[in-house]
Write a structure and sequence with these properties.
Elements lengths: L2 H10 L4 H13 L3 E5 L9 H15 L3 E6 L13 E5 L13 H16 L6 E4 L3 H14 L3 E5 L3 H7 L4 H17 L2 E4 L2 H9 L5 E3 L24 E7 L7 H10 L7 E7 L3 H8 L5 E5 L3 H10 L2 E5 L12 H8 L4 E4 L4 H7 L3 E4 L3 H14 L4 H18 L2 H14 L1
Parallel strand pairs: 1-2, 1-4, 2-3, 4-5, 5-6, 6-7, 8-9, 8-11, 9-10, 11-12, 12-13
Helix pairs in contact: 1-5, 3-16, 4-5, 5-7, 6-7, 9-14
């Protein structure tokens, strides 16, 4: 069998070790070519978008030429980073401007196949969920004789099952997800819970790369948002989906208004739950909605907030999640009010980073009131608290450190 044919056959059956070795060989003779396939990329206000930009930058810093195949929201431009080339193509978006839903995914995935087969052959491909994108990348990688890695932020088939999707949908999604995981030369998982589950679904080489935040963008220093309220406000920044259940903060705000009637709640972003949140607010001017903004502008909103509010509805398959919204706030020195399960429930109070409790309206309202009272401390005390939060993120959740290690590993495998 010819070497080229053997390489294709090896990739097709998911044995990526030989192809991964090619990355090492190319790295010795020139800059390895890496392609990232992701429907979400900066400047979208989504954790995946920021994470993938961080990985692209880390790969470029490690010596790779990086090409990102994505879809940028209308009216926005992807950031320019040395060593990273971004190619954007249109894709269907839902009413909130998000690529979410089977038709939307396919509108990105089908053209992606042709995009992956064009241009010079890459030394490595990296796929971001959904699993359908991963499946396209697996086929393209086999055809081009390249290895691929899969970035598992969560387990999509489990999430679909927990939200009541039809059985046949869950079965089909699990089959596709398992196919992608089995074929990947390496899977990057965002926490130990995801890592354990993807191994059960067939992943072979799994590395935990904890979620983090870009601490160069999200900082306590800098301007505050010009459009922000002049009265005390709480900020929900980022994607709002059903599993996050951000409506709890609107209910809690109404309780809070009994003692602090001027307090406001600002939603900044997008998501499948956006219209439901607007309906729940019922036109109350003290609940504001703003479209997604670039990360630097989101940081300006964080700096002026009394606290950032973050939630996870329990029992929907995301109990293990650690929302990146938390790190964005803390990196800006802003405390967090958290409602729901998961590791944040322990970390926030243990490190004096904010308030955490059950997914319960009364508990959330009490935490928001405590945040308002803490904001009335003198300037020196508030500055020390902000610095402590920032320092915790720098030690534990700096995106640059975590993704730098991941990039070095991907190129050295």
């Amino acid at each position: 069998m010819k070497p080229r044919t053997a390489a294709l056959a090896t990739a097709a059956v998911g044995a990526g070790a030989l192809a991964l070795a090619a990355v090492r060989r190319r790295a010795h003779t020139g800059r390895p070519r890496v392609v990232l396939a992701t429907r979400l990329y900066a400047p979208e206000a989504a954790a995946a978008a920021l994470r993938l930009r961080g990985l692209a930058r880390a790969l470029a810093d490690a010596g790779a030429d990086v090409t990102v195949l994505t879809s940028t929201p209308p009216g926005m431009s992807a950031p320019a980073d040395p060593g990273v080339t971004v190619h954007s193509a249109p894709a269907l978006r839902d009413k909130s401007g998000y690529i979410r839903g089977y038709a939307q995914y396919l509108s990105f995935d089908i053209p992606l196949a042709a995009r992956l087969l064009a241009g010079p052959a890459p030394d490595l491909m990296v796929a971001e969920p959904p699993p359908t994108t991963g499946a396209v990348v697996r086929v393209a990688a086999a055809l081009r004789g390249a290895p691929y890695a899969y970035y598992a932020a969560d387990v999509w088939s489990d999430a679909a099952a927990s939200t009541g999707a039809p059985g046949w949908v869950v079965t089909a999604l699990r089959a596709v997800e398992s196919l992608v995981l089995r074929g990947a030369g390496r899977v990057l998982a965002v926490n130990d819970g995801v890592a354990e589950r993807v191994r059960e679904l067939g992943a072979r080489e799994v590395t935990v790369v904890p979620n983090g935040i870009d601490t160069e963008v999200f900082t306590p220093d800098g301007a505050r948002a010009a459009a922000a309220p002049t009265v005390p406000y709480f900020l929900y920044a980022g994607t709002a989906s059903e599993w996050q259940g951000a409506g709890i903060f609107i209910h809690a705000l109404r309780r809070l208004h009994e003692v602090v009637p001027e307090a406001r709640l600002v939603f900044l972003g997008q998501g499948s739950d956006w219209q439901a949140l607007r309906d729940l607010a019922g036109g109350d001017a003290r609940v504001e909605f703003h479209d997604l903004v670039p990360a630097a502008e989101a940081a300006a909103w964080q700096r002026g907030a009394v606290a950032s509010v973050v939630s996870i509805r329990p029992g929907l398959g995301y109990d293990f999640a650690y929302p990146t919204k938390i790190f964005a706030a803390l990196a800006c020195g802003t405390p967090v009010v958290y409602a729901g399960p998961g590791p944040a429930r322990t970390d926030l109070p243990a490190n004096d980073l904010g308030w955490a409790g059950d997914y319960d309206v009364e508990q959330v309202a009490a935490s928001m009131l405590a945040a308002l009272r803490a904001a009335q401390a003198d300037d020196g005390e508030r500055a020390r608290a902000a610095r402590r939060r920032r320092d915790w993120v720098m030690r534990n959740r700096s995106m640059q450190a975590a993704l730098g290690d991941a990039a070095a590993m991907l190129l050295a495998d």
